[in-house]
Amino acid sequence: MQATEQTNEALERRIDMAVPLAAIERDVEVRLKRISRTVKMAGFRPGKVPFKMVVAQYGSQVRSEVVGDAIKQTFGDKVREQNLRVAGYPRIERKQGGDAEKLEFSAVFEVYPDIALGDISGQSIERPVLVVGEAEVDKTIEVLRKQRQAFEKVDRAPETGDQVIVDFTGRKDGEIFQGGTATDFGFVIGQGQMLKEFEAAVAGMSIGTSKAFDLTFPDDYHGEDLKGRTAQFEVALKEVREPRLPPLDASFARALGVADGDLAKMRDEVKANLEREVKKRIAARLKEQVMKVLLEVNPMVAPKALIELESRQMAENARQDVAGRGMDASKMPIEPAWFTEQAERRVKLGLLLAELVKKNNLHATPEQMRAQIEEFAQSYEDPAEIVRWYYGEPQRMAQVEALVVEDNVVEWVLAHARSSDNLVSFDELMGAAT
Length: 434
What we know:
- Strands 6, 7, 8, 9 and 10 form a five-stranded antiparallel sheet that branches. This protein has a four-stranded antiparallel sheet with strand order 1-2-4-3, with helices on both faces. It has a two-stranded parallel sheet with strand order 5-11.
- The radius of gyration is 33 Å and the shape is extended.
- Helices cover 47% and strands 22% of the residues.
- The longest helix is centred in the middle third of the chain and has 35 residues, at 263-297.
- By secondary structure, the chain is α+β, with helices and mostly antiparallel strands.
- The chain has helices at 21-36, 51-82, 134-147, 196-203, 250-255, 263-297, 304-324, 340-360, 366-377, 383-391, 394-416, 426-430, and strands spanning 2-7, 12-20, 86-94, 102-111, 124-129, 150-154, 163-172, 175-188, 210-216, 230-244, 418-423.
- The chain folds into three domains: 2-111, Trigger factor ribosome-binding domain (Alpha-Beta Plaits, 2-Layer Sandwich); 124-134 and 260-433, Trigger factor, C-terminal domain (Trigger factor, domain 2); 150-244, Chitinase A, domain 3 (Roll), CATH 3.10.50.
- Residues 161-247 form the PPIase FKBP-type domain.
- It catalyses: [protein]-peptidylproline (omega=180) = [protein]-peptidylproline (omega=0).
- Its main location: cytoplasm.
- Its EC number is 5.2.1.8.
- It is found in: Cytoplasm.
């Protein structure tokens, strides 16, 4: 057998292979004779089936298997000989014509890029800093109260933050459009559920009155038929409900999981949970900066095969997420091409992180993994049970290991780049959560 590597553009490689037909025929005959010893056919005892019938029945399948095995072996030998790191699977192309005594093929494939890690010493990274104090705890408790607020009927005109109950009908060119009518429809003024013009029209109404007004939909409206179009609405205001926050008492504390209703304990638990959340968000910001630096300092071409594989996996994850939300994923075509850019970034980072870990011994230690799992478990009622849950499944442990390795990479980059502290506000860090 002969095999010759030919380099193509970028990461693509080609190996030409020639498999002698004589060797193929010998192997085919050996396998068919092996089959004939035990094969069963109607009218014959096991092992007594005429060889010609065995050839007629199994010859094509066996020949295909023999050729496939020969190509696989030749390809594997050449890859090992030249120490090639194959990315994805080879594309096998059969050559037509040529030597009549040989089967000639080409294997086209990609290899992993050679990564020469760049110097990050000149890169700047800001460490977000936020100390959780009583003011931050107070803000968080107010958020928790708002999440549990109730609405009570009031006899006045609606204001921002009120819930209103309305009937409405919308017409475009004199015809009611799809989704343009509703009865006993509720929304909170100021939350953005409805267009601002619609909210403004309702805010000036009195209970029991109706109003007609024109509304022009924005050019980027999600409904294609309504983008930039003007519709006529009729709205009847039926109820106004004012938000009422729950009092800060023992009942509220118990609703947050403090069994004895102690408000001091509640504050301590809120602060502990908030500190964990702040730590997680700061870590996420740091990690994003580090990954951006690594990509900028280490430009590379990623194997298309790995990008396609990652894109397909991301599309499948999206389908599972849709199904998990109770929707029919089959009616929502999700294409791998949608995820190509994100998949390429993931593949490049995966290759960079693997090289950094190998060259700088940044592997996750058992002690680090234990500490990470115990940190995860602290927010649960029975931390020990959560720890056992992680250690009971190799896949969950692999996920923890990946997180620890990423943290090790972040710490290594911070130690070798120029880093500085940057005070951030609570509202900025927590964003929509506040």
